[in-house]
Write a structure and sequence with these properties.
The chain is of the alpha/beta class. It contains nine helices and 16 strands.
Length: about 300
């Protein structure tokens, strides 16, 4: 296949934070993705799901509170639900946009599981806050179940889950088959459904996986030509948020590591994106990473915008 392969990672800005906002946001996102298809890229798309999975978790928890005969949905099920509904909106919006441009191309969402290590250190120090605010009584009930909670200054609580590192993408061969057929694939949504492999059984884990982390792995596993990370800023900046802030047009993986050592990138925002870029480039030496905003994606692949990172 002569087309270049690209894994595109979509952040919160590409999806919105509510069901209504998501429908509006994906129409804009679909135009940016269709631009890449027109530029002759085969796309495999992954996306964040923080607001979506949190909303689903809240809804399922409240359902259990109101109707005692309902069973609370575990995190792995909430993750699967978010993959389905976010993928549904993206694939329909992108299909419509492509057809409007005279491009007939299948767009498919693959429900994707990702294995994690039960002994990953992240399980001992959970950091990802999800779900509704709870009063002390509900928080104590969560603790009795073996879950972690975080207390806020107003003495309310929220559930906290781990963010372990991904090991293997279970459905990678299905993703690769569709990519090889030049279809647009949406996979590993929200980092994938975290599962622990026990002999031949996959057991859902009470965790979430960093979206950027799985994007780097997905791009490496598919041997993609480029990893495109679409986020809320037009490029990577040195000294971001200070009066000395300067845009970075390009850097090598080695320079990115040095910048990390100097504390240049904020944890939870740009740092995981840079780490994903490095992980991908360590496996695909002739690949490149583009980091930019949704509106600049078309220009970034032409070298006119964003930050490019190479090995």
């Amino acid at each position: 296949m002569s087309r270049k392969r690209a894994v595109v990672s979509l952040g919160h800005e590409a999806l919105g934070y509510t069901t209504g906002a998501q429908k509006d946001a994906v129409r804009v996102t679909a135009r940016a993705l269709a631009d890449l298809v027109e530029a002759d890229y085969q796309l495999t798309i992954t996306h964040s799901n923080g607001p979506q999975v949190s909303m689903i978790h809240k809804a399922m928890s409240e359902l259990r509170r109101v109707y005692s005969d309902y069973t609370p949905a575990p995190m792995c099920v909430c993750s699967a639900m978010s993959q389905g509904y976010v993928g549904y909106d993206i694939q329909n919006a992108l299909r419509s946009e492509l057809l409007g441009r005279g491009i007939s191309k299948p767009v498919s969402t693959i429900l994707t599981q990702v294995t994690v290590d039960t002994y990953d250190e992240a399980f001992y120090e959970p950091t990802k806050v999800i779900g509704r605010y709870m009063e002390k009584e509900d928080a104590e009930a969560e603790i009795k179940k073996g879950n972690y909670v975080k207390e806020y200054p107003d003495h309310r609580f929220r559930r906290v889950v781990a963010a372990p590192k991904p090991i293997d993408i279970v459905e990678i061969e299905a993703i690769r088959a569709l990519a090889d057929a030049d279809q647009v694939v949406i996979a590993c949504g929200g980092g994938g459904i975290p599962v622990i492999e026990q002999q031949h059984v996959l057991k859902g884990a009470s965790a979430v996986i960093e979206k950027d982390s799985i994007a780097g792995k997905l791009a490496a596993d598919l041997r993609s030509d480029v990893l495109i990370i679409l986020t809320s800023v037009d490029c990577v900046y040195r000294d971001f948020g200070t009066e000395h802030q300067t845009p970075v047009e390009s850097m090598t993986a080695a320079e990115a590591k040095e910048a990390i050592a100097r504390g240049q990138f904020e944890a939870g925002t740009m740092l995981p994106k840079i780490e994903a870029a490095i992980a991908y480039l360590e496996k695909v030496k002739d690949g490149r990473v583009l980091i930019t905003s949704i509106g600049k994606g078309k220009d970034a692949v032409k070298g006119r915008a964003g930050t490019v990172i190479t090995a």
